[in-house]
UniProtKB/TrEMBL annotation:
InterPro entries, sorted: ATPase_YchF/OLA1, Beta-grasp_dom_sf, G_OBG, GTP-bd, P-loop_NTPase, TGS, TGS-like, TGS-like_dom_sf
Domain OBG-type G: 1-256
Biological function: ATPase that binds to both the 70S ribosome and the 50S ribosomal subunit in a nucleotide-independent manner.
Cofactors named for this entry: Mg(2+)
Protein name, as recorded: Ribosome-binding ATPase YchF
Sites where the protein binds ATP: N10, V11, G12, K13, S14, T15
Coiled-coil segments on the chain, per record: none
Cellular component GO terms held in the UniProt record: cytoplasm
GO MF entries: ATP binding; ATP hydrolysis activity; GTP binding; metal ion binding; ribosomal large subunit binding
Length: 365
């Protein structure tokens, strides 16, 4: 999974990226400090994996991973090339979902590109640039379809109609992902890799003294806007995340408890990202390796097995499965005991893998 971290200049985007990935992206108090995108791989925090590692003491520990991409800040007019707009737009096409960092804190020492704190104005600026860029993409595709429609090929007529419908909705300010389309029209839309077809999570970057407060007035308009557009909002203090990044696990947990926030901003963001993209993880465990495998919710056992190796899917026989909670609570993590108790299920080709399933695939090629 690849997540693009975007926002206006000086909203704390690169600070947050540094904290999440500890990758050392440049961060400074002036616009367009980030020119080329920065990339960082983050292991997904998962207490289930930690527990299995304690039980099996594996030679290899492989958690699920997310790639964060810190993309250059943009300003109004980015879709027309203002600031570093065109570069921004080309890099964002690569990601699975967009993380829009929005400044919600006051600080006279940090310049805001628009002169004041207004999260709703900021996300509106960004999103309209995405829409304008998509309009240009769709218009080019429409012009091409209309040109080839003259050949009499029906597929270009269907494509032209789909493009016109999408263009009309974008002009109304609607995101591509929220446009009602037929299955055939959706395929055409997805083939254009539109920016507004990607899920969005808004990250409200709050001050340290705002942490734990759920009713911040500055956030309310953004919460309403996100709900109306099928998106999520996560509040994170980039400064606190930066502090957490420099601590060992024990210190980190103590600090989180003192703050009363329950979990780190990274954990919150990852959970929202998985939910928004419809992803889950199943687990494999043994002395050789404890590993998490990320799949789309609704994936059947053979296709899940294919994530490990194509031979597993091709020669799939069955899956031996026990839910993690059952393995932990009823068997102290002992798979053999789970089998003796009859808690390990034998599942076939139609079984849909559930989040947290601990799985052993049987196959023959």
């Amino acid at each position: 999974m690849k997540l693009g971290v975007v926002g206006l200049p000086n909203v704390g985007k690169s600070t947050l990226f540094n904290a999440l990935t500890q990758a050392g992206a440049q961060s400074a108090n002036y616009p367009f400090c980030t020119i080329e995108p920065n990339y960082g791989i983050v292991s997904v925090p998962d207490a289930r994996m930690d527990y299995l590692a304690q039980i099996y003491h594996p030679q290899k520990f492989t958690p699920a991973q997310i790639e964060f991409v810190d993309i250059a800040g943009l300003v109004k007019g980015a879709s027309k090339g203002e600031g570093l707009g065109n570069k921004f737009l080309s890099h964002i096409r690569e990601v699975d979902a967009i993380i829009e960092v929005v400044r919600c804190f006051e600080d006279d020492n940090i310049t805001h590109v628009d002169g004041s704190i207004d999260p709703l104005r900021d996300v509106t600026t960004i999103n309209y640039e995405l829409i304008f860029a998509d309009m240009e993409t769709v218009q080019k595709r429409l012009d091409k379809a209309l040109k080839f429609q003259k050949t009499g090929d029906k597929k270009f007529k269907v494509e032209a109609e789909a493009c016109q419908l999408i263009l009309d909705e974008l002009e109304k300010g609607n995101f591509a992902r929220n446009i009602e389309l037929s299955e055939e029209q959706e395929e055409i839309m997805h083939s254009m890799f539109l920016l507004t077809d990607k899920p969005i999570i808004y990250v409200g970057n709050i001050a340290e003294d705002q942490v734990g407060k759920n009713d911040l007035p500055v956030l309310q308009p953004l919460l309403t806007y996100a709900a109306e557009h099928g998106s999520e909002v996560v509040t994170i203090s980039a400064k606190i995340e930066e502090d957490l990044a420099g601590m060992d696990e024990e210190e980190k947990q103590l600090f989180i408890e003192e703050l009363g926030i329950g979990e780190s901003g990274l954990s919150k963001l990852i959970k929202k990202s998985y939910s928004l993209l419809g992803l889950i993880s199943y687990l494999t465990a043994g002395e050789k390796e404890v590993r998490a495998w990320t799949i789309t919710k609704g994936t059947k056992a053979p296709q899940a097995a294919g994530k490990i190796h194509s031979d597993f899917e091709r020669g799939f026989i069955k899956a031996e499965i026990v839910a993690f909670d059952t393995l932990k609570n009823d068997c102290n993590g002992d798979m053999q005991l789970a089998k003796e108790k009859g808690l390990v299920r034998q599942e076939g080709k139609e079984y849909v893998i559930a989040d947290g399933d601990v799985v052993l695939f049987r196959f023959n090629v």
